[in-house]
Amino acid sequence: MLDVLAGALIYSNLLALLAVGLSLALLTCRVSNFAHGDLAMVGVYAAYTFSVVAGVTPYASIPVAFAAGGLVSLLAYLVVFEPLRGRADLVTLMVVSMAIDMVIRYSLHVYADLMQQWLKVYTRLFMFNDFLVEVAGAQVPGVLIASAVSTVALLLSLYMLLYKTKLGAAMRAAIEDPNLAQTLGINVKRVFAVSWFLAGALAATAGVFLPFRVMVNPDTGWSMLLSMFAAVTVGGIGSIGGSVAGAYLIGISETVLSYQLAGLGVSTAYRPLLTFAAIICTLLVSPRGLSGLWSGKGWWIRRRF
């Protein structure tokens, strides 16, 4: 059972970073970015490549993955979403994000084949080697410690950026009312570009920890998309703090309940059913998600950004 709880926390840590990044895309361009899962896989392959070439642990590749995911996301924003901002409707933006998903995913397939030829390593259905850490007399995987520390550090850094810096004030103003912000002299395009870079960087960082727990390939990011959207929806669309809370609710419930059902002989193939059930139950209680429960209390979970 300890391994199940550890797996639930690891998955929730990753989901929190992914959900926050997805929220940034939703708040800026009002687009449900279907390519967000692929940004996590960009982080996986960036970390894998660097660790093989440099001969270091994938943990040391986190800065490389952070930069790679951020740059790919930034490129998608500058080339596609920025020209369409204010001109395309929601459906068009969703279709465009699906097209970008295909481009990134199949580019990763091509890269995986090239990497296998050049570096002579397995690039499909692979895992990273991990180590064990003794905590309170129990052996826990290193990825649990690394993912928890990284998630807390990145989310705290994001909070400090948003509420303790001039750039953060500009980002919040641009999201609240882009036209008014531009009238006040804020470079909305630059501010949104920073937001998209951070969204991709957070997703790619989460991706680094994924192969420590499961076998991955270029399609793995797509399979996680449902859980990401569930975390954002359950937490409350438009609330970064809510997305974090939703991520832990979805991550822990998915993992623990799947384990319980497997013990009863029920196939884990029904795991998505748990995610949809969580969405429905939460929205029945609070249509605005978990963040609606904190309405008017002024905490980060209820703020728009």
Question: In a few lines, what is going on in this structure?
Answer:
With 305 residues, this protein is mainly α. The protein has helices at residues 2-29, 36-54, 62-84, 90-119, 142-164, 166-176, 178-183, 188-209, 220-223, 225-235, 240-263, 271-285, and strands spanning 132-135, 138-141.
Question: What can you see in these coordinates?
Answer:
This protein has one domain (2-218). The protein contains twelve helices and two strands, in the order ααααββαααααααα. It has helices spanning 2-29, 36-54, 62-84, 90-119, 142-164, 166-176, 178-183, 188-209, 220-223, 225-235, 240-263, 271-285; strands at residues 132-135, 138-141. The protein has a two-stranded antiparallel sheet. Helix 1 (2-29) packs antiparallel against helix 8 (188-209) and helix 11 crosses helix 12.
Helix content: over 70%
* Radius of gyration of CA atoms, rounded to a whole number: 19 Å
Q: How would you sum up the major sheet?
A: 2 strands, antiparallel
**Strand line-up in the sheet with most strands:** 1-2
Number of E-state strands: 2
SSE pattern, N- to C-terminal? HHHHEEHHHHHHHH
**Average residue-wise pLDDT:** 89
| Total helical segments | 12
Sequence stretches where pLDDT stays below 50 over 5 or more residues: 296-305
Number of domains: 1
Q: How far do the termini sit from each other?
A: 37 Å
What percent of residues are in strands?
A: under 5%
Question: Which class do the helix and strand fractions yield?
Answer: mainly alpha
Outline: globular
